[in-house]
Amino acid sequence: NAAKAPAPRVAVVLFLLKDKSVLLGRRRSSVGDSTFALPGGHLEFGESFEECAARELREETGLDINKTKFLTVTNNVFREEPKPCHYVTVFLRANLADPEQLPQNLEPEKCYGWDWYDWDHLPKPLFLPLEKMVKTGFNPFPDH
Ligand code: 8DG
Ligand code: MG
Ligand code: MG
Predict the structure, then answer these.
(1) ipTM of the complex model
(2) I need a surface site. Which of 88, 90, 134, 142 has the fewest CB within 10 A?
(3) Is 111 helix (H, G, I), strand (E, B) or coil?
(4) Which of 76, 87, 122 best tests ligand 1's pocket when mutated (most atoms within 8 Å of CB)?
(5) What DSSP letter does each residue of 7-29 carry, written as one string?
(6) pTM above 0.95?
(7) Ligand 1 atom nearest to CA at 12
């Protein structure tokens, strides 16, 4: 029922890069449950994309970043989910401020845990918006 459909929302998600790896967490959520996804969340009133990415990453993992850069935006409609939703998803990349800092699972009700995954050996299944990008050949690393 289109009249009851919620408005599209803005999400900001982050490719946190370390050597040839990215940080992914397995989702605990009604949307994309058990799939591997980037850290990120909803843009709040007044935030820049960069501020949102840094805040969500800190809330979810405790990690701090630098060299944050906008990459691209995609349109994601989750029609078949129990609660259908629509996200305009903004993708940024960044590096760790301190390469020694380790990710903590600070929201265990939303994530089974964070880990680094080699870009050439990503885990399965990926969260659909990420899966779609990988299939188009998208690469978040600066030398691409
Ligand atoms: P918040 O309350 O902290 O703001 O939100 P959250 O609980 O962290 O939300 P989220 O599900 O992590 O992110 C919001 C939406 O962003 C998610 O439902 C769908 C969209 N999204 C994508 N791709 C990705 C991705 O790779 N990772 C995450 N976390 N969200 C993504 O389209
Ligand atoms: Mg969050
Ligand atoms: Mg999140």
Answers:
(1) 0.98
(2) 142
(3) strand
(4) 87
(5) PPEEEEEEEEEETTEEEEEEE-S
(6) yes
(7) 16
